Each structure stands twice: as C-alpha cells, then as structure tokens.
Amino acid sequence: MLADRFGRVATDLRVSLTDRCNLRCTYCMPAEGLAWLPREEQLTDDEVNRLVRIGVELLGITEVRFTGGEPLLRRGLVGIIQAAAALTPRPRLMVTTNGIGLERMAVPLREAGLDRINVSLDTLDAERFQALTRRDRLADVLVGLEAAASAGLTPVKINTVLMRGINEDEAPALLRFALRYGYQQRFIEQMPLDAQHQWDRHEMVTAEEILASLAPFGLQADPVSRGTAPAETWLVPGHLDAAGEPARVGVIGSVTRPFCGDCDRTRLTADGQVRNCLFATEESDLRKLMRGGASDDDLAEAWRVAMRGKRAGHGIDDPSFLQPARPMSAIGG
Ligand SMILES: Nc1nc2c(ncn2[C@@H]2O[C@H](COP(=O)(O)OP(=O)(O)OP(=O)(O)O)[C@@H](O)[C@H]2O)c(=O)[nH]1
Ligand SMILES: C[S@@+](CC[C@H](N)C(=O)[O-])C[C@H]1O[C@@H](n2cnc3c(N)ncnc32)[C@H](O)[C@@H]1O
Ligand code: SF4
Ligand code: SF4
C-alpha cells in the first residue's frame, strides 16, 4: 500500500503523459510555451506501462487518470490505455484533456478501455476562448465533448477555472450548457501552479462566489457522500443527467475549502518522478532507478518511501508556502 504518516492511503494514480500542450491557458502556461522535456527524459510507453502495472499489482492502485500537458498529444495513448485495461485487478481508467482531437480519439479510447473523460472548457464565447487559451479552438472542444458523450465516456465532466474579469460571469451559462447536453459541470478555484508565478489570492474567484452566482438554480445538498473526490457536489433541481440521474454541479475549492485530509492521490510525471502531492517540492526519481536496472520490488519500495514523506496538506496559507518549481502542465493536473 502507498500509506503516509497521516493514515491516508493513495489508490488514485495520476500519470502525466507529456508536458506539451496545444493550448496556452493563461493560468497555466506563458504564451511562448515552456522548455519541453527532452525526448530521452520522457518515459517510453513501455516504461509508463511498467510503472502503472507496479502501481496496480503491487501497490493497491485502483484508479488511473492520464493527464498532462495535453494527454491526447501522446502518440501511444491508446496502447497505454489498452495495457492498463488488461491489468488485474482492472483499474478504473480516466483522461483529463482540453478536448482538442477528441472528435477523432473518443471511439478508439473507449474501445481501448477508457471509462470516463474530463474536458476542460472555461468559456462558451469564441473570443474569450481565444483570449484565455491564446488559440482559436473552441469549436474543436465542443465537437470533442459531443464525441466523448456519444462514445460512452460518461459521465463527461467539464472543468472550468473562473478568472476575475475574464469569465467570472459565465458560471450560469456554462451550467445551463452542461445541463442541456448531460455533462457534469465543475468549477475550479485557481491554484498557485502557473508557470509565470502570477497567481494572486485576491484575484482568485472563490468557491463561495461561484456558489453565490449559481443561487438562481436553487442548488440542493447532495445526499451522496463526496468520499475522496476534490469536488463538492450539489443537485440541480428539475434536471436529470444523461443517465437519468439527478443532475449535479461540482465546485473544487482547492484553496478555500481544501480536501487534503482525505487525499488518496499519487502522481507520476512524464519524466518518471513520483510526486506525493500536487504541491510537493521534492520528487523521487523512478526513471533513473528503472533505467539503472531496478526490479519491480525495488521500484515499488521507492514509491512507498516517497509517499511516506507526504505532508498533511498543501500549506498555501502558511507563510512558509513555496510554489513548486514545476508548473501544473509539467506535474499533471
Ligand atoms: N488541490 C488539489 N487539486 C486537485 C487535485 N487533483 C485535481 N485537482 C483539481 O481538480 C481539477 C479536476 O481534476 P480532474 O483531473 O478533472 O479530475 P478529478 O476531479 O480529480 O476526478 P473525477 O471527479 O473523478 O473525475 C484539476 O484541474 C485541479 O484543479 C489534487 O490532488 N489536489
Ligand atoms: C493541467 S491540465 C492537463 C490536462 C489538459 N491539458 C486539460 O487542460 O484538461 C488539467 C486541469 O488543470 C487545470 N488547471 C491548470 N492550471 C490550473 C491552476 N493554476 N489552478 C487550477 N487548475 C488549473 C486545468 O483547467 C485542467 O482542468
Ligand atoms: S490547462 Fe491544460 S490545456 Fe490549458 S495550457 Fe495547461 S495543460 Fe494546456
Ligand atoms: S494539495 Fe496535495 S495533499 Fe492536498 S489534495 Fe492535492 S495532492 Fe492531495
């Protein structure tokens, strides 16, 4: 098991498959992009498959999410999903993507064994989309969403980061859009993980403000326990989701309503580093061990040791808080 000193056990593995991306969301990356990982430092598909297998077979991982950067840019993605789906016990398999290319990829991913997908979409307005992501690709994301739903990658969740003065007024419109198409809408507080280090707490749109803007929907408390999920969910009266269940909306209040006490996550970067927290400032180099001839048991033990050192929480409010050197796109959001 991947246990830490605070009694938490990691069963949810988040794997970053690349640090590259075809968008430049302002809260994530600078316009010019970043210095991408050299190819030789990136894990090969076989190396990713091996570490996922070790996680599942030796360390109790039950859920694997592939992310990035943009995971659909990883050429071997379908094969990596296939390999994970063939493991015993079979983990639940998810992808978090910006949706570009999903129109073409949704069916192959579903056939490979992908269970669900989360698509990031911050605005329904093409001009705002261009301003926020620095690319004119809104139409691609919208067709990607539809393709994911018709391929059965459900429930399709939409992730939205609200930004002051840019799209903070758009929560009701995004929720109406999600309700119309049967997607589950989630709003996310912006975290200090941007490459530019420009995050400002006072600029962040808080969970409380988001909920206030959704007041006209008459949201009701969700009777289903949240478990270890980052999102707090509410029922939207009078609406059903695509499966005929009561429609839900989620708010991920990572900063003002942290959920670190229930954290069940462990992360693997595209260059083979274990991170025990999104905000960890130290990493454990499984790539070096693996390329140096380590056995599966050696790698599993190094992973266990890395998780034992996990801190109680992200500490964003501590005066001593240090933003990690890696930005979100290189950690795997
Ligand atoms: N603080 C914190 N925030 C996280 C963590 N994981 C994800 N998030 C935030 O939650 C957002 C949504 O994450 P996703 O990858 O879409 O999925 P999820 O919410 O973890 O999982 P599901 O609800 O099961 O789909 C991310 O964009 C982050 O902003 C985490 O471990 N810690
Ligand atoms: C880093 S991206 C990687 C996957 C894919 N490129 C995407 O955008 O979905 C994963 C998620 O992190 C979110 N994210 C990025 N930077 C963030 C930040 N500073 N604070 C909160 N969420 C952030 C994105 O909105 C996205 O939903
Ligand atoms: S949030 Fe996702 S889509 Fe946007 S720049 Fe970061 S990695 Fe790319
Ligand atoms: S900030 Fe770290 S401890 Fe808190 S939920 Fe995220 S990964 Fe877990």
UniProtKB/TrEMBL annotation:
Radical SAM core domain: from which residue to which, for each copy?
5-230
Can you tell me which residues bind GTP?
R14, R65, T96, K157, R265, T266, R267
Positions contributing to S-adenosyl-L-methionine binding: Y27, G69, S120, M191
Q: Which keywords does this Swiss-Prot/TrEMBL entry list?
A: 4Fe-4S, GTP-binding, Iron, Iron-sulfur, Lyase, Metal-binding, Molybdenum cofactor biosynthesis, Nucleotide-binding, S-adenosyl-L-methionine
Binding of [4Fe-4S] cluster 2, residues: C260, C263, C277
- Regions that span the bilayer: none
In terms of Pfam families, this protein maps to: Mob_synth_C (PF06463), Radical_SAM (PF04055)
Top-level lineage group: Bacteria
Q: Which GO terms describe its biological process?
A: Mo-molybdopterin cofactor biosynthetic process
Q: Which cofactor does it need?
A: [4Fe-4S] cluster
Q: Does the keyword Cytoplasm apply?
A: no
Q: Which residues bind [4Fe-4S] cluster 1?
A: C21, C25, C28
Pathway the protein contributes to: Cofactor biosynthesis; molybdopterin biosynthesis
Q: Which SUPFAM superfamilies match?
A: Radical SAM enzymes
Q: Describe its assembly.
A: Monomer and homodimer.
Stored NCBIfam families: moaA
Q: What does this protein do?
A: Catalyzes the cyclization of GTP to (8S)-3',8-cyclo-7,8-dihydroguanosine 5'-triphosphate.
UniProt lists the family membership as follows: Belongs to the radical SAM superfamily. MoaA family.
PANTHER family in the cross-refs: MOLYBDENUM COFACTOR BIOSYNTHESIS PROTEIN 1, MOLYBDOPTERIN COFACTOR SYNTHESIS PROTEIN A
Name of the protein this chain belongs to: GTP 3',8-cyclase
Q: Which gene encodes it?
A: moaA
